[in-house]
Amino acid sequence: MDLKERIEALVEGYLQGSEYFLVNVLIAGGKSVPKLIIWLDGDAGVSIDKCAEVSRWLGKRIEDENLIETNYTLEVSSPGIDQPLKLFRQYKQHLGRNLRVTLKDGSTKTGKLEEVKETSVTIAETAKGKKKENNPLLEIATTDIEKAFVLISFNL
């Protein structure tokens, strides 16, 4: 088991049975001072306090198991707006928000997330130049999604 897999297993085990879940682990930097970036999320988001708790716990486990023999940087946070939704579980907390979905065929769909099912998501597709009422509903199979981003609106 390589370092990334071990970190994933540790964090997933720690979060098991809770409302929180691991989104991704990235190991960056060189071997001399690796940087571990851990992204967490929760069914209702994740607080900075939870990220700090996981960081302290994981740091201790890394030390106890001597997983990294050199100095390292550990960063635990929630995915930012520049991060795509990676897990199906993340979609539920974004109901009612606008998404930009890139499909595996290369096309892009934009619209308000209306429904999340086991095998699909439904968006009210925003068509250019049309009023926002009566937007067509588009059901997209999760297997057809390449990546999806939550769009942030600053309209007041």
Automatic annotation (TrEMBL):
Instruction: Please indicate if the UniProt record lists Ligase as a keyword.
Output: no
One matching Pfam family is: DUF150_C
Where is it located? Cytoplasm
**What SUPFAM superfamilies does its record include?**
YhbC-like, N-terminal domain
Broad class of where this protein is predominantly found: cytoplasm
Q: Does the keyword Cytoplasm apply?
A: yes
Q: Domain named Ribosome maturation factor RimP N-terminal: which ranges?
A: 11-82
Residue ranges of domain Ribosome maturation factor RimP C-terminal in the record: 86-154
- Keyword entries, A-Z: Cytoplasm, Ribosome biogenesis
Record InterPro entries = Ribosome_maturation_RimP, RimP_C, RimP_N, RimP_N_sf
Q: Provide the function of this protein.
A: Required for maturation of 30S ribosomal subunits.
Family assignment from sequence similarity: Belongs to the RimP family.
The record, for PANTHER family, names: RIBOSOME MATURATION FACTOR RIMP
**What's the protein name?**
Ribosome maturation factor RimP
Q: Which gene encodes it?
A: rimP
